[in-house]
Amino acid sequence: xxxxxxxxxxxxxxxxxxxxxxxxxxxxxxxxxxxxxxxxxxxxxxxxxxxxxxxxxxxxxxxxxxxxxxxxxxxxxxxxxxxxxxxxxxxxxxxxxxxxxxxxxxxxxxxxxxxxxxxxxxxxxxxxxxxxxxxxxxxxxxxxxxxxxxxxxxxxxxxxxxxxxxxxxxxxxxxxxxxxxxxxxxxxxxxxxxxxxxxxxxxxxxxxxxxxxxxxxxxxxxxxxxxxxxxxxxxxxxxxxxxxxxxxxxxxxxxxxxxxxxxxxxxxxxxxxxxxxxxxxxxxxxxxxxxxxxxxxxxxxxxxxxxxxxxxxxxxxxxxxxxxxxxxxxxxxxxxxxxxxxxxxxxxxxxxxxxxxxxxxxxxxxxxxxxxxxxxxxxxxxxxxxxxxxxxxxxxxxxxxxxxxxxxxxxxxxxxxxxxxxxxxxxxxxxxxxxxxxxxxxxxxxxxxxxxxxxxxxxxxxxxxxxxxxxxxxxxxxxxxxxxxxxxxxxxxxxxxxxxxxxxxxxxxxxxxxxxxxxxxxxxxxxxxxxxxxxxxxxxxxxxxxxxxxxxxxxxxxxxxxxxxxxxxxxxxxxxxxxxxxxxxxxxxxxxxxxxxxxxxxxxxxxxxxxxxxxxxxxxxxxxxxxxxxxxxxxxxxxxxxxxxxxxxxxxxxxxxxxxxxxxxxxxxxxxxxxxxxxxxxxxxxxxxxxxxxxxxxxxxxxxxxxxxxxxxxxxxxxxxxxxxxxxxxxxxxxxxxxxxxxxxxxxxxxxxxxxxxxxxxxxxxxxxxxxxxxxxxxxxxxxxxxxxxxxxxxxxxxxxxxxxxxxxxxxxxxxxxxxxxxxxxxxxxxxxxxxxxxxxxxxxxxxxxxxxxxxxxxxxxxxxxxxxxxxxxxxxxxxxxxxxxxxxxxxxxxxxxxxxxxxxxxxxxxxxxxxxxxxxxxxxxxxxxxxxxxxxxxxxxxxxxxxxxxxxxxxxxxxxxxxxxxxxxxxxxxxxxxxxxxxxxxxxxxxxxxxxxxxxxxxxxxxxxxxxxxxxxxxxxxxxxxxxxxxxxxxxxxxxxxxxxxxxxxxxxxxxxxxxxxxxxxxxxxxxxxxxxxxxxxxxxxxxxxxxxxxxxxxxxxxxxxxxx
Length: 1110
Description:
This protein has 1110 residues and is α+β, with helices and mostly antiparallel strands. 18% of the residues lie in helices and 31% in strands. The strands form 23 sheets. Strands 30, 32, 33, 37, 38 and 39 form a six-stranded mixed beta sheet that branches. A five-stranded mixed beta sheet has the order 29-31-36-35-34, with no helix packed on it. A hairpin with a 6-residue loop joins β47 and β48.
């Protein structure tokens, strides 16, 4: 033993004497980085210093801190700076032999300064009219503060005011309303005029439109009202025609039987005295017995003569109730003794026309798989004249046959006269590159009108398509240039027009001074997580850029893009995220500041899954779209398929349940029928589903029946704030959230935009507009010049080719939204359809439509613009889900049966000249959602789940975990191969788009650039008549204008719907304004992913946060 101890002692001494040859090398600190060298704090605030010591492998990275002025600011051993008093202190951070300094400037905390604000300091009303003052108490940042307001009038004989600030005019004169709150006061001057209100009249009776088969049919419901009632007046309704209609005390009418009905409205004043006796008479018709007739769309009379190579289009006043089809019979009766029935070319088979036929006959029908091949042309007839002769046309729907009519086909006559037309009959052209598109027509009708163009002065060039380009300067203003059109078929036949050079109109858009900020964020946040906040700056047209900051960076930090990161020090604290809008009038200062209060807490610990005792969770969607939700169906094409399948099965095991996707029944196909079916089954066992796929535009229609279960509380507890603010706003109704927080991992946010035929673009040699956008060259001026050049390029292909196509309204709306303007802003209760940018957009589109004539004159939308579908227009307005969707823009639309020959591109709407692409935004208008069904205990109890609260929580959490676990698995799989979320977004975009620049445009818009605008429903663009029509007329006809949308006699729908939206802005539990929305039925064409025929396979637009509802 002693021997071993001796050996150990010798070994130890040798180590001490000779050391170890493997001592580690000492790596010295080379630098200390702080990220900033100065910070401003208010007295009492703290700031956490987070230094970075370089290099990463330094041997000793220990950091120490000290302050040179502890009376101003102290710093703890962990680097937490505390502001003590006003002044300046230098905090030094030491690491090894290196150090860095941070200058702390401490200022006094701002005293809260309160003022009473009002939208208007003076208002005028008529006798009997009312005005709501809308006063608020705000602090110096512009943030509203809770306060009690008192109102008083100095002249109650002229105007009185109630406790809510509603002023009522009683007599002509002036009254001053004083608003007080404690020591604060504000006055508003009210002028009351003696102007009599408009005459009372019965309103709400639907107008007949025989051309479009619009009548009051049996079963129709509507509500009559009396317009222009005075204060305190009441209406008593009555009718003697109770067999024809039912009439409630509120004026609600239902058409019962065919016949004539008269309704009476007795109007009484507040004392009960009768002041008016009104009546209205209308006819109720039986749709099934209306005579079938054929008409020409857009014309009161049918066209009865066309020339060879021309076409005539017809439709019937009704279609088959089941197939929506019409059977047309077209006969060649040139020889009346031997009529010959012409074969009909169906789009699907493209059969050849027999040589002996005198006309090509095309009937637009239902496609073989039951979908509409061309929805807007369904049940219509097109006749193209091939030879002279006489046709007889009849139509059959069911057992009913229309009266026949005759269509004469003639040879094209030679022209005898030419006429040159200038846009809007205004033959003037602007200097410095101004353009004008002339057109030549000929007489008689159908005669050849092809001409060549010439100019007598080089100041104005004329192109082959009649486009004039002015080379003149301001010195040439007033010069008259003569343009000549010469017929190509009749020698010596000419026409001339004198064009006057005028001053170039330069539109200057002044950016308004910011006056308000609305922050869209998350009131409840968790430690260690990040949240994307966004801000909307008012008024409309203001620069949307804001400067973000946190009230206390120790609690949470916010980067320049509004991304908030919550820190451990914020646990249990309430504090503000702050947004400041830079001033335009006083550069270097802020025009307005807004604060958003958040509460930080530890992330909740996910509870164990709930045992659902084998319960089947049922998701219900349209039968032909089940693969949108079910990842086990072969048609499911999302990139998350494998991850979702695994998560689905794991959830089923963890919750002891099964999850199944089933179809709505046949009696609930879409729209009103589906809404009615859901409402009818709201309180029985027939519904059968736990989640309906519905659209946010329907939410208001489920309110009365309580068909849907509000998930606000469940979302706060388990949703992990996964919904972006715009989507959450769209799915909220009367303060309640009705949507599941489906995963947004890899989601793209493009809804509407401009789409182009990439092959055609390259064929005519035009620059790629998506590349122009990415290089910040897609302003209004850039767009207008691109359209002008594109029209010249594509015009070389012949007549009937256009640079752009589609409904003007959607260009107008998109070009407003991209500037960061919400057309319907529920936060500020404003309808923003007029303003400098809005007018600028109209002027640009007017010039394109009228001066350049580069716009297909046949409006179309919803994937049905004929010029775009037939490669006669480069660009069309549309929605992303149209792309590569069979019944919109198919994958082989321009190359039948060869998808490689059809390539799609996308570009955002152009933005004002005073903006950059960094300032632009895109909108969401809502969409399809997973809505939880309110079973009112029936289904749960039947399955043995007797505790309703537990059942709802378990069912919600199960589907919620399918989304959460799918996202987790995707991220884990991506980490293995180095794939980022941006890579996933790029993959998803490439499923629709074939152009790399277009894909980059999609990726440019992340969730911080998205805002919610429900204009489609509030303005009523899908109504009959559409409220979009005045804007389109303003663009196409150069009259009326934007005031038509603001004060249109025929569009009271706008005011009523918007008023309904504003009424739904009710406070949630935090007292914040929660936007209600949607007062109209949705348009029938909605969706987010491909709709395919069963025989086809192909890509899917993966936007899992928006399940398709069809």
